Amino acid sequence: MLFSATLDDTIDGLVQRYLRDPVSHSVGATISTSGATGPDSGNAPGRGTAGDHPAEGVVPGSASLESGAAHGGRASGGTAAVPAVAHYALHVRRSDKRTVVSEIAAREGRTLLFVKTQYGADKLATKLREVGIGAVALHGGKAQNQRNRMLSAFADGTAPVLVATDVAARGLHIDDVSLVVHVDLPADPKDYLHRTGRTARAGASGTVVTIVTPDNRDEAAQLAQRASVTLTDVDVRPGDRQLIEITGARRPGGRPVADPSAPPPKAEAAPEQPRFRQRPKGESRPHNKKRKPGAARRSTR
Q: What is the model's pTM?
């Protein structure tokens, strides 16, 4: 028997090669991905427009999910009443990227930001704290006790923003993560789907945003096509109405905040009292020994 949260085409190949008449049991429904191609598909996957009007009850650029596409599982042509995830590509100027990300991070609710490198995670979390956003960084370079503090701060709301590498893309379950942001594009479609799977869990819905700059526009489109996901393309600038409507973005407070996951400072120990009384400067050392009789007379001779 094989148990897994993610069963992709590679696993399917092994099943067909080595098993005879296998039976598959899925906890939940199969998925229907809006970007899937087929003979009746009207649009090419990976591209959508903000002006598209989907059918009632369907989120623009969405995919119905369970342990499927957004969670790294298998896509299917079937439909099911499962949570919807809205996928957006926010096209920004390169000079506006940091400001747009800061405004998104300042929103209410738990927000998960994915970046490519450990250095990038630490740097972005620091920059966000400098403008008043309680952000922590999670990556493979942290010790286990540090990771535990980061996750605890994110889970209890002390840190509303978690900046992470792909170490947080799998096996991480935090309730009420309503927005996942691909600040840096993932390396491959599987990473996109695993990152996306951190939202819309346990029957909830969620939004996934990919930050796209002019120099990676083609790469983002190819990534979405390979992941069978349709991205709704929106051009945004800092403070734009559409940016606010999609992500709940708002201007950061601007006042720096401390690292929410930092351990509490240790109480200062009281200074140790000297074991012996210190003599004032110039005071002679007392003589405790008694002089022997006749010692004074001998010393004067």
A: 0.68
